Amino acid sequence: MQFRMTNIMLIEKINSPADLKQLSPDQLHLVCSELRKYIIEQLSENPGHLGASLGVIELTVALHYVFNTPYDRIVWDVGHQAYAHKILTGRREAFKTNRQFKGLCGFPTPRESEYDAFGTGHSSTSISAALGMAVASKLKGENNRQVIAVIGDGAMTGGLAFEAINNASINNNDLLIILNDNHMAIDPIRGGVSDFLTSIHASKEYNHLRYIGYRILTKMGIMNDDRRNKILRLGNTLKSLKNNPAEHNIFEGMNIRYFGPVDGHDVERLVDRLNELKKYRGPKVLHIITQKGKGYRPAEEEVTTWHAPGTFNAKTGERIKPKNTNQPPRFQDVFGHTLVELAQADKRIVGITPAMPTGCSMNIMMHEMPERTFDVGIAEGHAVTFSAGLAKEGLLPFCNIYSSFMQRGYDGVIHDVALQNLNVVFCLDRAGIVGNDGATHQGQFDIAMFRPIPNLTMAAPRNEHELRNIMYTAAHTETGPWVIRYPRGNGMLTDWHNDMQKIELGRGECLRKGDDICITGVGPILYKALKAAESITDHNIAVYDLRFIKPLDDALLTEIGNKFNKIFTIEDGSMIGGVGSAVEEWMMDHGYRPTVCRMGLPDHFIEHGSPAELYEMLGIDERGIRNQILERQ
Description:
seven-stranded mixed beta sheet; 25 helices; alpha/beta; five-stranded parallel beta sheet
């Protein structure tokens, strides 16, 4: 496959949507072509989310061509679709810094631009947020303001989207929901929503005739809202009978006008349709069909791989792999292989993930045991309570959810799992500093979230052997719910495949003996602490791995309390309510009064950048830990 870069012309002159509007409709195809090439070129050298943004280029151009942004609001869901949006809204040159430290955020954020109407780093929030904006506009008398929610890339599988659709049907609003249907999230969408979107259809002539009839009857004084709703339901029934007696349109069933499906890559037709829809009052849905990775053959053919492919050769489509291949495996892969081993030995074990089987490596079990692995879609709350139901009937669910996404399932962990003391093992991938995805994805809150929950065991392995041993222990210790947190990316050990063994519940260990100062904490960040301790020759510093955040190791902490007057704690989570707080509380509760100096994540959201850059900025890299110890002597 040949990929030939051409000189960029039109988009170099577009610094805002006002510039785009100066073009004729037949020039928009060239704008789309140039945007597509520019995004491919930039992401080949500076990795990001490629496939989703390539799929909505025509839609992005049409939206900014038709609507008066930023006065009109566009809410992108999920936010990694928004690269073309950023480029057209004055950030073309800055896009070269996308996801880089101090550069552009990889997701829409109002802190960055007035064109980013709402922050959308997580999924399925757009309809709720946009509905709020649309209702607010009505209340403020801004009846000419258009509000558009662009939802796609699997986001319609999230329960929040359905809650919003239900509410949109009863509130006074003119919301436009654009359903970007590409049959994909990161992995293929599974479930009834996907089947529905594949089969749903509506007649353009039918919609047009119905609109004319509505206008005539309203002018004659015959039509009111109650009669309109009854007629809409009758029309839905007749349309369903005509097309398929078994088919029912969920949007129309909720009195939300449905239009489509429309080719999402025909920019001129999109412009025409959006101009028509601007005239319609009330909530409405435009269903467009797109192809993820559109216009770049490798991304079209291997959609999951090219969702976020890393660096690649833009001309050949060859992905550029790291030169050092003798690296420890990713924690994610160790989890995936270990889960298969455990499941082979225990038929009760099942795997659950909310739409991230490849990202969390549950695809390994999905391949080996498809009947015992469940991708529930972008629905973290459902994943938690579904796991609770499985556990209630005697199975042992390993539910893998990214740390920052787990925030959305918090209620279920408390009320559906912990309160009933069910044996569910929650594996929190991407705990701690994630990196370039930024504030919406940093796993900084999980320790503080889960520490107060009764019946729950929480552990943080510092390496791959520990991860395997803790997973094994969780599978063989029926003490209620477990939470196992571990970071994104490569582990610490190249020889990771140890013989798993059971660990005593709540037992930590001493990693480095010392008499002057103590450092204690959990997770791989302890390796930075060990190096910092070794570099300080003026003090004999001990390092302890608590291993368990809950329950704490009473014997180990008693040893520390009796021996040290100064204790440093280290963690890659929030210091408020984190491991340091747990240690300080334990010391106070047991009559010890050492000075506890906490190191970890401060009380603010952590922006994007490489993990190394962020650790350095936060002062919890090896040098930062060393400096903090020396400064507090």
